[in-house]
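pinned: reference chain
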Amino acid sequence: MTDFSAKLDKLAEAAIQVGLGLKSGQELLLFAPIDALPLARKVTEHAYRAGASLVTPFYIDDDSVLLRYRHAPDDSFDAVPKWLYDGMGKAYRSGAARLHIMSDNPSLLAKEDPVKVGRSMAARAKAAQPMMEPIMRWDVNWSIIAAATPTWAAVVFPHEQPDAALAKLWDAIFAATRIDENDAVENWSRHAASLRSRADHLDDKRYSALHYRGPGTDFRLGLADDHIWKCAGNTAGNGARFVANMPTEEIFTMPHKDRADGWVAASMPLSHGGALIEGMRLRFEGGRVVEARADKGLPVLEKILDTDPGSRHLGEVALVPVSSPISRSGLLFYNPLFDENASCHLALGQSIPMNLRDGATLSQDQQAAKGANHSVIHVDWMIGSNRIDIDGITSAGAAEPLMRAGEWDRGRDRNGTCPSLRTGRAELPHPALRLKSAR
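pinned: its C-alpha coordinates
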Protein backbone atom coordinates (compact mmCIF):
# COMPACT_ATOMS: atom_id res chain seq x y z
CA MET A 1 0.00 0.00 0.00
CA THR A 2 1.44 3.39 -0.97
CA ASP A 3 1.84 6.14 1.59
CA PHE A 4 -1.09 8.04 0.04
CA SER A 5 -3.33 4.96 0.04
CA ALA A 6 -2.43 4.30 3.67
CA LYS A 7 -3.38 7.85 4.67
CA LEU A 8 -6.61 7.67 2.68
CA ASP A 9 -7.44 4.43 4.49
CA LYS A 10 -6.69 6.04 7.88
CA LEU A 11 -8.93 8.98 7.02
CA ALA A 12 -11.78 6.64 6.09
CA GLU A 13 -11.28 4.59 9.26
CA ALA A 14 -11.25 7.73 11.43
CA ALA A 15 -14.40 8.98 9.71
CA ILE A 16 -16.28 5.80 10.61
CA GLN A 17 -14.76 5.08 14.04
CA VAL A 18 -14.39 8.63 15.36
CA GLY A 19 -16.44 10.94 13.15
CA LEU A 20 -19.55 8.78 13.08
CA GLY A 21 -19.00 6.24 15.83
CA LEU A 22 -21.04 4.02 13.51
CA LYS A 23 -23.06 1.38 15.34
CA SER A 24 -23.29 -2.23 14.26
CA GLY A 25 -26.50 -2.77 12.29
CA GLN A 26 -26.88 0.94 11.47
CA GLU A 27 -27.59 2.21 7.95
CA LEU A 28 -25.40 4.94 6.46
CA LEU A 29 -26.27 7.60 3.89
CA LEU A 30 -23.04 8.69 2.20
CA PHE A 31 -22.76 11.89 0.12
CA ALA A 32 -19.68 12.47 -2.02
CA PRO A 33 -18.53 14.26 -5.20
CA ILE A 34 -17.63 12.02 -8.11
CA ASP A 35 -13.97 13.06 -7.82
CA ALA A 36 -13.91 11.66 -4.27
CA LEU A 37 -14.88 8.16 -5.36
CA PRO A 38 -11.67 6.49 -4.02
CA LEU A 39 -12.26 7.92 -0.53
CA ALA A 40 -15.98 7.11 -0.70
CA ARG A 41 -15.15 3.47 -1.45
CA LYS A 42 -12.71 3.33 1.47
CA VAL A 43 -15.40 4.79 3.74
CA THR A 44 -17.89 2.20 2.48
CA GLU A 45 -15.41 -0.60 3.21
CA HIS A 46 -14.79 0.58 6.77
CA ALA A 47 -18.52 1.10 7.34
CA TYR A 48 -19.25 -2.51 6.44
CA ARG A 49 -16.29 -3.67 8.54
CA ALA A 50 -17.85 -1.79 11.46
CA GLY A 51 -21.13 -3.66 10.96
CA ALA A 52 -23.19 -1.29 8.80
CA SER A 53 -26.35 -2.97 7.58
CA LEU A 54 -26.43 -0.89 4.39
CA VAL A 55 -24.43 1.97 2.86
CA THR A 56 -26.36 4.06 0.32
CA PRO A 57 -24.11 6.45 -1.63
CA PHE A 58 -25.26 9.66 -3.34
CA TYR A 59 -22.77 11.15 -5.79
CA ILE A 60 -22.58 14.83 -6.74
CA ASP A 61 -21.50 16.08 -10.18
CA ASP A 62 -20.45 19.73 -10.55
CA ASP A 63 -20.75 19.63 -14.34
CA SER A 64 -24.42 18.67 -14.04
CA VAL A 65 -24.97 21.61 -11.69
CA LEU A 66 -23.49 23.97 -14.28
CA LEU A 67 -25.66 22.52 -17.04
CA ARG A 68 -28.70 23.60 -15.07
CA TYR A 69 -27.51 27.21 -14.99
CA ARG A 70 -26.64 27.16 -18.67
CA HIS A 71 -29.76 25.52 -20.07
CA ALA A 72 -32.62 25.17 -17.54
CA PRO A 73 -35.75 27.37 -17.70
CA ASP A 74 -36.04 30.18 -15.18
CA ASP A 75 -38.56 28.41 -12.95
CA SER A 76 -36.08 25.53 -12.51
CA PHE A 77 -34.27 27.57 -9.86
CA ASP A 78 -37.26 27.40 -7.52
CA ALA A 79 -37.64 23.63 -7.99
CA VAL A 80 -36.27 20.99 -5.59
CA PRO A 81 -36.51 17.18 -5.36
CA LYS A 82 -38.71 17.24 -2.28
CA TRP A 83 -39.41 13.52 -2.67
CA LEU A 84 -35.70 12.86 -2.20
CA TYR A 85 -35.41 15.05 0.91
CA ASP A 86 -38.52 13.42 2.36
CA GLY A 87 -36.94 10.00 1.86
CA MET A 88 -33.70 11.03 3.49
CA GLY A 89 -35.56 12.52 6.43
CA LYS A 90 -37.44 9.25 6.87
CA ALA A 91 -34.11 7.38 6.87
CA TYR A 92 -32.67 9.63 9.61
CA ARG A 93 -35.82 9.36 11.71
CA SER A 94 -35.45 5.58 11.37
CA GLY A 95 -31.90 5.80 12.75
CA ALA A 96 -29.64 6.05 9.70
CA ALA A 97 -26.31 7.88 10.08
CA ARG A 98 -25.11 10.56 7.65
CA LEU A 99 -21.60 11.19 6.31
CA HIS A 100 -20.82 13.99 3.88
CA ILE A 101 -17.51 14.08 1.99
CA MET A 102 -17.10 17.76 1.16
CA SER A 103 -14.97 19.12 -1.68
CA ASP A 104 -16.90 22.11 -2.96
CA ASN A 105 -15.43 24.05 -5.86
CA PRO A 106 -15.48 27.60 -4.39
CA SER A 107 -15.70 29.22 -7.82
CA LEU A 108 -18.21 26.82 -9.38
CA LEU A 109 -20.98 29.39 -9.69
CA ALA A 110 -18.85 32.53 -9.69
CA LYS A 111 -19.88 33.42 -13.25
CA GLU A 112 -23.54 32.48 -12.89
CA ASP A 113 -26.48 34.79 -12.20
CA PRO A 114 -26.31 35.53 -8.42
CA VAL A 115 -30.09 35.92 -8.28
CA LYS A 116 -30.56 32.39 -9.62
CA VAL A 117 -27.88 31.11 -7.25
CA GLY A 118 -29.68 32.68 -4.32
CA ARG A 119 -33.08 31.37 -5.41
CA SER A 120 -31.74 27.85 -5.77
CA MET A 121 -30.07 27.88 -2.34
CA ALA A 122 -33.17 29.31 -0.66
CA ALA A 123 -35.50 26.75 -2.26
CA ARG A 124 -33.19 23.90 -1.31
CA ALA A 125 -32.82 25.11 2.28
CA LYS A 126 -36.58 25.36 2.79
CA ALA A 127 -37.34 21.97 1.26
CA ALA A 128 -34.54 20.29 3.21
CA GLN A 129 -35.57 21.61 6.63
CA PRO A 130 -37.65 18.56 7.64
CA MET A 131 -34.83 16.31 6.50
CA MET A 132 -32.27 18.27 8.52
CA GLU A 133 -34.25 18.45 11.77
CA PRO A 134 -33.02 15.06 13.09
CA ILE A 135 -29.47 16.13 12.21
CA MET A 136 -29.68 19.56 13.88
CA ARG A 137 -31.23 17.96 17.00
CA TRP A 138 -28.44 15.36 17.01
CA ASP A 139 -31.01 12.58 17.06
CA VAL A 140 -28.56 10.51 14.99
CA ASN A 141 -24.81 10.48 14.47
CA TRP A 142 -23.45 12.45 11.54
CA SER A 143 -20.12 13.83 10.37
CA ILE A 144 -18.39 15.80 7.59
CA ILE A 145 -14.93 15.10 6.16
CA ALA A 146 -13.19 16.44 3.07
CA ALA A 147 -11.56 15.13 -0.10
CA ALA A 148 -9.18 17.01 -2.36
CA THR A 149 -10.33 17.49 -5.94
CA PRO A 150 -8.61 19.16 -8.91
CA THR A 151 -11.03 22.11 -9.07
CA TRP A 152 -10.78 22.84 -5.34
CA ALA A 153 -6.99 22.42 -5.36
CA ALA A 154 -6.68 24.90 -8.25
CA VAL A 155 -8.40 27.58 -6.14
CA VAL A 156 -6.29 26.96 -3.02
CA PHE A 157 -2.98 26.65 -4.95
CA PRO A 158 -3.53 28.73 -8.10
CA HIS A 159 0.17 28.96 -9.00
CA GLU A 160 0.88 25.22 -8.86
CA GLN A 161 0.62 22.69 -11.65
CA PRO A 162 -2.58 20.59 -11.32
CA ASP A 163 -0.91 17.43 -9.97
CA ALA A 164 1.20 19.39 -7.49
CA ALA A 165 -1.81 21.43 -6.34
CA LEU A 166 -3.85 18.28 -5.75
CA ALA A 167 -1.02 16.64 -3.79
CA LYS A 168 -0.58 19.74 -1.63
CA LEU A 169 -4.28 19.93 -0.84
CA TRP A 170 -4.35 16.26 0.17
CA ASP A 171 -1.35 16.87 2.43
CA ALA A 172 -3.16 19.82 4.03
CA ILE A 173 -6.29 17.72 4.60
CA PHE A 174 -4.33 14.86 6.17
CA ALA A 175 -2.50 17.29 8.48
CA ALA A 176 -5.67 19.14 9.53
CA THR A 177 -7.51 15.90 10.30
CA ARG A 178 -4.57 14.49 12.28
CA ILE A 179 -4.12 11.59 9.89
CA ASP A 180 -0.37 12.27 9.72
CA GLU A 181 0.02 11.16 13.33
CA ASN A 182 1.31 7.65 14.13
CA ASP A 183 -1.92 6.92 15.95
CA ALA A 184 -4.51 9.32 14.60
CA VAL A 185 -7.27 7.94 16.78
CA GLU A 186 -5.29 8.42 20.00
CA ASN A 187 -4.39 11.94 18.89
CA TRP A 188 -8.08 12.68 18.42
CA SER A 189 -8.63 11.49 22.00
CA ARG A 190 -6.14 14.03 23.38
CA HIS A 191 -7.49 16.78 21.14
CA ALA A 192 -11.10 16.17 22.22
CA ALA A 193 -10.10 16.27 25.90
CA SER A 194 -8.31 19.59 25.41
CA LEU A 195 -11.31 21.17 23.70
CA ARG A 196 -13.64 19.79 26.36
CA SER A 197 -11.50 21.45 29.03
CA ARG A 198 -11.93 24.83 27.34
CA ALA A 199 -15.68 24.32 27.06
CA ASP A 200 -15.92 23.32 30.73
CA HIS A 201 -14.06 26.48 31.72
CA LEU A 202 -16.51 28.70 29.84
CA ASP A 203 -19.48 26.79 31.26
CA ASP A 204 -18.09 27.52 34.72
CA LYS A 205 -17.74 31.24 33.92
CA ARG A 206 -21.37 31.60 32.79
CA TYR A 207 -20.72 34.77 30.78
CA SER A 208 -23.86 36.63 29.77
CA ALA A 209 -22.29 38.19 26.67
CA LEU A 210 -19.15 38.52 24.57
CA HIS A 211 -17.67 41.82 23.34
CA TYR A 212 -15.56 41.80 20.15
CA ARG A 213 -13.20 44.61 19.10
CA GLY A 214 -10.98 44.82 16.03
CA PRO A 215 -10.74 46.33 12.54
CA GLY A 216 -14.28 47.02 11.37
CA THR A 217 -15.67 45.30 14.45
CA ASP A 218 -17.20 46.63 17.64
CA PHE A 219 -19.78 44.03 18.49
CA ARG A 220 -21.58 42.88 21.62
CA LEU A 221 -23.25 39.47 21.53
CA GLY A 222 -25.52 38.23 24.30
CA LEU A 223 -25.61 34.51 25.03
CA ALA A 224 -28.78 32.44 25.32
CA ASP A 225 -30.22 31.70 28.73
CA ASP A 226 -29.02 28.27 29.98
CA HIS A 227 -26.48 28.06 27.14
CA ILE A 228 -23.91 25.24 27.08
CA TRP A 229 -20.52 25.28 25.37
CA LYS A 230 -19.93 22.27 23.11
CA CYS A 231 -16.94 20.93 21.17
CA ALA A 232 -15.60 17.79 19.46
CA GLY A 233 -17.16 14.59 20.74
CA ASN A 234 -20.88 14.51 21.44
CA THR A 235 -23.57 11.94 22.07
CA ALA A 236 -26.46 11.54 19.62
CA GLY A 237 -29.99 10.67 20.68
CA ASN A 238 -29.36 7.09 19.55
CA GLY A 239 -26.46 6.80 22.00
CA ALA A 240 -23.68 6.97 19.40
CA ARG A 241 -20.64 9.13 20.20
CA PHE A 242 -19.66 11.25 17.18
CA VAL A 243 -17.47 14.16 16.03
CA ALA A 244 -19.54 16.24 13.64
CA ASN A 245 -16.67 17.97 11.82
CA MET A 246 -13.25 16.54 10.96
CA PRO A 247 -11.23 18.72 11.33
CA THR A 248 -12.51 20.64 14.33
CA GLU A 249 -10.81 23.22 16.54
CA GLU A 250 -13.82 25.12 17.87
CA ILE A 251 -15.78 25.42 21.05
CA PHE A 252 -19.22 26.83 20.39
CA THR A 253 -22.49 27.83 22.01
CA MET A 254 -25.81 29.53 21.34
CA PRO A 255 -26.12 33.31 21.11
CA HIS A 256 -29.39 34.95 22.12
CA LYS A 257 -31.25 35.77 18.90
CA ASP A 258 -32.31 39.22 20.19
CA ARG A 259 -29.06 40.33 21.84
CA ALA A 260 -26.56 41.31 19.16
CA ASP A 261 -25.56 44.91 18.52
CA GLY A 262 -22.89 46.68 16.49
CA TRP A 263 -20.71 46.13 13.44
CA VAL A 264 -18.87 42.88 12.80
CA ALA A 265 -16.56 42.32 9.83
CA ALA A 266 -15.66 39.02 8.18
CA SER A 267 -11.96 38.16 8.29
CA MET A 268 -12.10 35.66 5.41
CA PRO A 269 -14.15 35.25 2.23
CA LEU A 270 -17.28 33.15 2.54
CA SER A 271 -17.73 30.40 -0.04
CA HIS A 272 -21.41 29.51 -0.14
CA GLY A 273 -23.16 27.31 -2.64
CA GLY A 274 -20.44 27.83 -5.23
CA ALA A 275 -20.52 31.63 -4.86
CA LEU A 276 -17.85 33.74 -3.14
CA ILE A 277 -18.67 36.63 -0.78
CA GLU A 278 -15.73 38.90 0.06
CA GLY A 279 -15.41 41.86 2.43
CA MET A 280 -18.61 40.97 4.28
CA ARG A 281 -19.69 43.43 7.01
CA LEU A 282 -22.93 43.28 8.99
CA ARG A 283 -24.55 45.68 11.44
CA PHE A 284 -26.87 44.28 14.10
CA GLU A 285 -29.52 45.99 16.20
CA GLY A 286 -31.51 44.04 18.76
CA GLY A 287 -30.13 40.78 17.39
CA ARG A 288 -31.12 41.43 13.76
CA VAL A 289 -29.00 42.32 10.73
CA VAL A 290 -30.15 45.79 9.70
CA GLU A 291 -27.35 46.62 7.27
CA ALA A 292 -25.18 44.43 5.06
CA ARG A 293 -22.16 45.30 2.95
CA ALA A 294 -19.76 43.25 0.84
CA ASP A 295 -16.99 44.04 -1.63
CA LYS A 296 -18.04 41.07 -3.77
CA GLY A 297 -21.10 38.82 -3.80
CA LEU A 298 -23.52 41.25 -2.11
CA PRO A 299 -26.58 39.95 -4.05
CA VAL A 300 -25.91 36.41 -2.81
CA LEU A 301 -25.43 37.69 0.75
CA GLU A 302 -28.70 39.61 0.58
CA LYS A 303 -30.49 36.50 -0.67
CA ILE A 304 -29.12 34.54 2.30
CA LEU A 305 -30.33 37.23 4.70
CA ASP A 306 -33.79 37.25 3.13
CA THR A 307 -34.28 33.47 3.21
CA ASP A 308 -36.72 33.64 6.13
CA PRO A 309 -37.26 35.76 9.30
CA GLY A 310 -34.61 33.84 11.22
CA SER A 311 -31.88 34.22 8.63
CA ARG A 312 -31.05 37.76 9.84
CA HIS A 313 -30.38 36.49 13.36
CA LEU A 314 -27.51 34.41 14.74
CA GLY A 315 -27.67 30.74 15.71
CA GLU A 316 -24.08 29.95 16.72
CA VAL A 317 -20.97 31.60 18.14
CA ALA A 318 -17.66 29.72 18.06
CA LEU A 319 -14.21 30.49 19.46
CA VAL A 320 -11.01 29.32 17.73
CA PRO A 321 -7.48 30.60 18.51
CA VAL A 322 -5.34 31.80 15.60
CA SER A 323 -2.71 29.27 16.71
CA SER A 324 -4.95 26.42 15.52
CA PRO A 325 -3.18 24.07 13.06
CA ILE A 326 -5.35 25.23 10.18
CA SER A 327 -4.59 28.87 10.91
CA ARG A 328 -0.86 28.11 11.23
CA SER A 329 -0.90 26.46 7.80
CA GLY A 330 -1.41 29.94 6.33
CA LEU A 331 -3.87 28.51 3.80
CA LEU A 332 -7.23 29.90 2.86
CA PHE A 333 -9.22 26.80 1.95
CA TYR A 334 -12.31 28.61 0.62
CA ASN A 335 -14.25 25.88 2.43
CA PRO A 336 -16.17 26.49 5.67
CA LEU A 337 -15.29 23.07 7.11
CA PHE A 338 -11.65 24.19 7.23
CA ASP A 339 -11.77 27.98 7.35
CA GLU A 340 -14.14 28.04 10.32
CA ASN A 341 -11.52 26.04 12.24
CA ALA A 342 -8.90 28.67 11.56
CA SER A 343 -10.92 31.51 13.00
CA CYS A 344 -13.54 32.57 15.50
CA HIS A 345 -16.84 32.59 13.68
CA LEU A 346 -20.57 33.17 13.81
CA ALA A 347 -23.45 31.46 12.04
CA LEU A 348 -26.52 33.10 10.59
CA GLY A 349 -29.72 31.12 11.00
CA GLN A 350 -30.65 27.98 12.88
CA SER A 351 -29.51 27.44 16.46
CA ILE A 352 -28.25 24.08 17.69
CA PRO A 353 -30.66 22.80 20.38
CA MET A 354 -27.86 20.86 22.10
CA ASN A 355 -26.32 24.23 23.03
CA LEU A 356 -29.10 24.63 25.59
CA ARG A 357 -29.32 22.77 28.85
CA ASP A 358 -31.84 19.93 28.29
CA GLY A 359 -32.27 21.34 24.78
CA ALA A 360 -33.37 18.01 23.30
CA THR A 361 -36.40 17.91 25.58
CA LEU A 362 -37.56 21.48 24.93
CA SER A 363 -40.23 22.41 22.41
CA GLN A 364 -39.38 24.95 19.73
CA ASP A 365 -41.30 27.63 21.66
CA GLN A 366 -39.42 26.78 24.86
CA GLN A 367 -36.11 27.01 23.02
CA ALA A 368 -37.11 30.38 21.56
CA ALA A 369 -37.98 31.67 25.02
CA LYS A 370 -34.36 31.08 26.05
CA GLY A 371 -33.04 32.85 22.95
CA ALA A 372 -32.81 30.13 20.31
CA ASN A 373 -33.16 31.15 16.67
CA HIS A 374 -35.08 29.15 14.07
CA SER A 375 -34.36 29.23 10.36
CA VAL A 376 -33.95 26.88 7.40
CA ILE A 377 -30.32 28.02 6.97
CA HIS A 378 -27.17 27.73 9.06
CA VAL A 379 -24.31 29.66 7.42
CA ASP A 380 -20.95 29.95 9.20
CA TRP A 381 -18.73 32.96 8.46
CA MET A 382 -15.35 33.83 9.87
CA ILE A 383 -14.64 36.91 11.99
CA GLY A 384 -11.48 36.07 13.96
CA SER A 385 -7.90 37.20 13.37
CA ASN A 386 -4.77 38.19 15.28
CA ARG A 387 -6.23 41.70 15.51
CA ILE A 388 -9.40 40.72 17.37
CA ASP A 389 -9.85 41.03 21.15
CA ILE A 390 -12.78 39.38 22.95
CA ASP A 391 -14.04 40.06 26.47
CA GLY A 392 -16.40 37.86 28.43
CA ILE A 393 -19.12 39.92 30.12
CA THR A 394 -20.23 38.61 33.52
CA SER A 395 -23.80 38.68 34.75
CA ALA A 396 -22.81 41.72 36.84
CA GLY A 397 -21.63 43.53 33.71
CA ALA A 398 -17.89 43.28 34.33
CA ALA A 399 -15.58 42.67 31.36
CA GLU A 400 -12.94 39.93 31.62
CA PRO A 401 -10.25 39.29 28.98
CA LEU A 402 -11.11 36.11 27.09
CA MET A 403 -9.03 36.33 23.91
CA ARG A 404 -6.31 38.81 23.03
CA ALA A 405 -4.92 39.22 19.50
CA GLY A 406 -6.82 36.10 18.52
CA GLU A 407 -5.33 33.91 21.30
CA TRP A 408 -6.75 32.65 24.56
CA ASP A 409 -5.90 35.12 27.30
CA ARG A 410 -3.24 33.57 29.54
CA GLY A 411 -4.18 35.54 32.63
CA ARG A 412 -6.87 33.11 33.72
CA ASP A 413 -4.43 31.20 35.89
CA ARG A 414 -0.73 31.18 36.60
CA ASN A 415 0.11 28.54 34.03
CA GLY A 416 -2.19 29.80 31.28
CA THR A 417 -4.09 26.50 31.27
CA CYS A 418 -7.70 25.68 31.99
CA PRO A 419 -8.46 24.98 35.66
CA SER A 420 -10.85 22.24 34.54
CA LEU A 421 -7.97 20.40 32.84
CA ARG A 422 -5.85 20.41 35.97
CA THR A 423 -8.70 19.22 38.19
CA GLY A 424 -9.53 16.34 35.90
CA ARG A 425 -12.92 17.50 34.68
CA ALA A 426 -12.12 16.87 31.02
CA GLU A 427 -14.71 14.61 29.44
CA LEU A 428 -13.71 11.02 28.79
CA PRO A 429 -12.73 10.51 25.17
CA HIS A 430 -14.93 8.98 22.53
CA PRO A 431 -15.44 5.21 23.25
CA ALA A 432 -13.93 4.32 19.87
CA LEU A 433 -10.84 6.32 20.81
CA ARG A 434 -10.46 4.49 24.13
CA LEU A 435 -10.90 1.10 22.47
CA LYS A 436 -8.38 1.87 19.73
CA SER A 437 -5.77 3.20 22.16
CA ALA A 438 -6.16 0.13 24.39
CA ARG A 439 -5.28 -2.34 21.62
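why pinned: The chain has 14 helices and 20 strands. The first strand starts at residue 27 and ends at 33.
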